[in-house]
Write a structure and sequence with these properties.
This protein is an alpha+beta fold. It has helices spanning 56-69, 76-85, 90-96, 102-110, 117-136, 145-161; strands at 2-4, 14-23, 32-43, 48-52, 185-188. Strands 1, 2, 3, 4 and 5 form a five-stranded mixed beta sheet that branches. The two termini are 29 Å apart.
Length: 194
């Protein structure tokens, strides 16, 4: 551990170390592990333990992109994470998804079961569009150009395979063009990338 100043009490006795693996449950998802780059700071004076994650805003958006592009069907906690990443309330999400009740969104977010293919595809297409609109607002986009390119490519391939209208989601006829394995998502914390 290297000595450094405590960010809370300014004590010079604080020590920091770089963690090789960090379970990033603070993001709201249980399966996100950061590889390298995460700094843990311990201060014996104020008894504070602090974790610093570089480029955290970008990392959170990369995690959103990974959820949208993952191979397996979404589950409730991922829906909630994506919805929040798009800056949407449950009520606004319900309107976007063309469902009548906000409570239905809450029920889906509480589910631990993988979504059925039709609902999963509809949610992904809807939230891909919502995420893109969110990123288009000045100051909201923290993704690198290669992330935007990856999202655009995925969005084009996804939309080409499914014909959606706001009122009806068609059933998928082929496998979804997903990229990431969802059993455990690992990221390099020093450089936010998939």
């Amino acid at each position: 551990m290297e000595p450094m100043g405590c960010p809370y009490c300014d004590s010079a006795k604080a020590k920091s170390r770089i963690l090789t693996r960090y379970s990033y449950t603070e993001c709201g998802l249980e399966n996100v592990v950061l590889i390298g780059g995460v700094q843990e700071i311990n201060c014996p004076e104020c008894e504070t333990k602090y974790t610093f994650i570089p480029n955290e805003r970008q990392l959170l958006q990369v995690i959103t992109l990974a959820c949208l592009m993952k191979k397996d069907p979404l589950i409730g906690s991922e829906l909630k994470y994506i919805r929040k990443s798009c800056g949407l309330t449950q009520e606004k999400a319900a309107k976007l998804l063309a469902i009548e009740r906000r409570a239905t969104v809450a029920e889906r977010e509480a589910s631990t079961e993988p979504f059925k293919a039709r609902w999963d595809s509809w949610v992904r297409m809807t939230f891909l569009r919502a995420f893109r609109q969110y990123l288009d607002v000045e100051g909201q986009n923290h993704l690198a150009p290669e992330h935007i390119e990856m999202m655009t490519d995925f969005e084009c391939r996804f939309a080409a395979e499914y014909d959606y209208t706001p009122k009806k989601a068609s059933s998928p006829k082929r496998k979804l063009p997903r990229q990431a394995d969802s059993s455990k998502v690992e990221f390099s914390a020093s450089k936010a990338s998939l």
